[in-house]
Structure formats: C-alpha cells, structure tokens
Amino acid sequence: MKNSNLWLLGLFALALAMSVSACCCCEDDEDTTCPDLIVQSIDPFIDVDCPGGAGTCVTTVKFTVANVGTADAGAFNINIVLDPGASVSLNEFVPGGLGAGDFLTITVTSPPGGNCYDPDCTVDIFVDNSDNVSECDEDNNKGTQTILG
Description:
The protein is mainly beta. The protein folds into 2 domains: 1-31; 32-147, Immunoglobulin-like, CATH 2.60.40.10. It has 1 helix and 8 strands; from the N terminus they run αββββββββ. It has one helix spanning 2-21; strands spanning 37-42, 47-49, 58-67, 76-82, 88-94, 103-109, 121-127, 142-147. The longest helix has 20 residues, at 2-21.
C-alpha cells in the first residue's frame, strides 16, 4: 500500500511539474508561444492646436502598437502621458486585443489645456500598463518620443 501511495505521489508531482513547465509565457521557458505587446512607433509629427488661445490647446499624437509574439493578446489598456512634467495622462482601451503579428495605429487627442510643448514635447506610451496580458517579455511595453519645440 505504501509503495502505491508513493508511486501516485510521484506521478502527481511529475504531472504538476509538466504543467508548470508548459507555461506558455514563462520567461524562463524555451516555449515562446505567447503574446508580446510593444510600442512599434510614435509619429514624430505631434500636432498642437490652440483654437482660442492659451488654455484651449489640444495635443494630437499618433502611434502604433504591435503584438510581436506568436499568440493573440486579449484586451489591454494603453496609457499615454504627454509632457510627463505636466502629467497630461490619457488612456486608450483595446477591447478586442491584438492578434499575433498584428499592429494597430491609434490617434489620441488631449483635452483642452493639453499643450505638450514647453518648449519640447515628450510622449511616453505604456502598452498593457495594467498587466492584463501575460506576455513573453513584460519589459518592452514602453515607448518614448521627444520632439524638440
């Protein structure tokens, strides 16, 4: 009876080890079947329009995010910070996620008062800033662009 219990315990331990090692997105794994979201590019043309003078300025930024992984990514959020010193923060939710190898170009506009240039404009973009998607590489989700004013 004791030998059969040990055998079952060993079999259970082996099954558990195999299920842990089969994790598709563990960074220590050889298996790279997982999504990997990145900021592919930030358009260097950042538009600021001030239709009614100071205080009415809006900043428009266009950027592209991509899934360079080999699996689809589920829904995720993107945090866009215009001029980190002024802390104009925007969020863009991607409810449909992004398929493996796909990319998505997004244009966002700040609310009035969001002039990014003082005199330069820095844009920080954080893809999946809420960590909703388990990715192959969680350290490549940020893109930064500074445009001289």
